[in-house]
Amino acid sequence: MKTECIGDYVKLKDKIYPCTVSLTMDLIGGKWKAVILYHLQNEPKRYNELRREIPAITEMTLSLQLKQLEKDGLLLRKVYGTKPPIKVVYSLTDFGKSLIPVLEAITNWGNQVVNENGEFVNVSS
After folding, report:
1. What is the C-alpha to C-alpha distance for residues 20 and 4, in angstroms, rounded to an integer?
2. pTM above 0.70?
3. Could you give the CA distance from residue 18 to residue 5 in angstroms, rounded to a whole number?
4. Which of 2, 7, 98, 116 is 20 to 30 A from 87 (CA-CA)?
């Protein structure tokens, strides 16, 4: 029997999922979570650095997704200083770092799809 089929459901932090794929997609699914994690896999970054690297994301969406990733234990938000302007840096937790092989596989697959069936384009602003 496959590991993910040991029980009828899986549970993480008091949340029940029908399977491990559902659990994974809840943590990193959607349009932006994996993209944010991808941009943090090599080094910690400040909010504005992430905004520059992911220009298509809105400020509100980035803020909400960062909060959700932090709540889920994938990101660490570290605040430096007590008076404005404070410095806030986001980095992957060890739990978040465990996703790096998954992010690399997603990136490689996406590159392969574009190379075989699409094209990389530059959009001038």
Report:
1. 6
2. yes
3. 10
4. 98
Report CA-CA distances (Å) from 92 to 34, 53, 66: 12, 17, 11
For β-strands 10-12 and 15-17, DSSP reports them as antiparallel
pLDDT digits (tens, 9 = 90+) for 76-97: 999 998 888 889 999 999 999 9
User: In sequence order, what are the residues at sequence separation of 6 or more whose Cβ sits closer than 8 angstroms to the Cβ of residue 54?
Assistant: 32, 35, 36, 39, 62
Give phi and psi for 8, each to the nearest 5.
Answer: -75, -30
Q: CA-CA-CA-CA torsion for 36, 74, 109, 117, nearest 10 degrees?
A: -30
Helix (H) or strand (E) holding 88: strand 87-92
- The answer to whether 76 and 90 have CB atoms below 8 angstroms apart is yes
